[in-house]
Amino acid sequence: MNSYGDGKQAWPWIDRDATLTYDCSKLDQWEILFSHMTRMGVMPHFVLSETENEAFFEIRETGRTSGFAKSRKIYYREMVARFGHHPAITWNIGEENGLAQGDGYHTANTDEQRILFSAHLRKLVPYDDHIVIHNGPSYEDWIFTPLLGNKNLTGPAFQWNYEEDIYGKTLEWRNKSAAAGQPWVFGLDEPFVKETKVPMEVWRKNVVWGTFMAGSAGVELYIGKGDDLRVQDYRPFEEHYQTAVRAIRFLSDHTAFQAPEPHEGFVDNAWSLLQEGETYVLYLADGGTTEIKLPEGEYKVDWFDPRNGGELQRGSKQACLAATAPRSAIPPIQWMKIGYA
Prior knowledge:
Elements: H1 24-39, E1 45-47, H2 56-62, H3 70-83, E2 90-92, H4 111-124, E3 130-134, E4 155-161, H5 166-179, E5 187-192, H6 200-213, E6 218-219, H7 238-254, E7 261-262, E8 271-275, E9 279-283, E10 297-300, E11 319-322
Parallel strand pairs: 1-2, 2-3, 3-4, 4-5, 5-6
Antiparallel strand pairs: 7-8, 8-9, 10-11
Helix pairs in contact: 3-4, 5-6, 6-7
């Protein structure tokens, strides 16, 4: 819903201001699109507001920015009633929520409102859907702290500059949410970029593998430089999508996907996903070698090419025996140089 927002093209009513008169023909057409997405395995991510219209419903209905407008409640109910049957939905309370500067509709929601909105939405959804909220700008994440432990939110829709430490930020909020008693499903929905598209080497290393190796559920592609408002041809971004698909398929085919946990410091110069006693995944973003200490047992060693994908490969060291010996006495395992363009 971007009435008075960036694109100013999408709303479910007959007019951008007619918040109580829904356009049934338009919504039927939306359902055709969402049904096609479901058949193709594409996750519907419903962004229910954006920063430019955070206070839209409340101001139009009451003249105030506070509270919870009835028109917003009806809007949530209508969206859930029409589209809540689709699988794998993400319901997003708002894009860059909290960034607004107090200019009419562009007035930030409060922590109390975010809690109320998510609680109301949780009551409406028929299944255990993913309910999130998006931060902004791409270098501030304070919005999430007051929401830690909220049982109605299942994760952040996270925005961060693609050149920054996305791995560290993902790990930070996974750990904070777990400590607060409501572990979040972490999704990077906007690796913010000012260029037309993220350079492939950075996309592969920092964005795709950075999020997955920190325990993320996934990453979405954001097109920068204003092109997100008018792009109609996604073919120039095929390699970006394929890079993400390679990572997903590797984790799905060769790990229990949800079982391995990120382990910071398991080895000094690699990101690690561990399923203790079963699977150990290391990613060396800058290549090189590393030394790993494993529980006693025999291990098979395989390699994966994140640039080109394909089957697992066997190297010169196809197996290793971990014994109860000091770390210094265990021969270092040589890992292939991965991550270079």
